[in-house]
Amino acid sequence: MDKLKKMALFCRVVELGSFAAVADDQGVTPAIVGRHVADLENLLGLRLLSRTTRSMEVTDEGRRYYKGCRDALDQVATLEQNISNKEKRDPSGIIRLSAPEGLAIPYLLDLIESFRVRYPDVTFDLLLDNAKTDFVAEGTDIAIRLAIALEDSSLIIRKLGETEFVLLAAPSYLMKRGEPENLEDLSSHDCISFGASKIGDGWPVLTAKGIRKIRQPWKMVVNHTQSHKEAIKRGMGVGLLPRIMAEDMINEGLVRQISLDVEFPKIGIYLVYPSRDLQPRRVRLFLDHVYQAFAV
Question: Which domains does the chain have, with CATH numbers?
Answer without folding.
Answer: 1-85 (1.10.10.10), 163-266 (3.40.190.10)
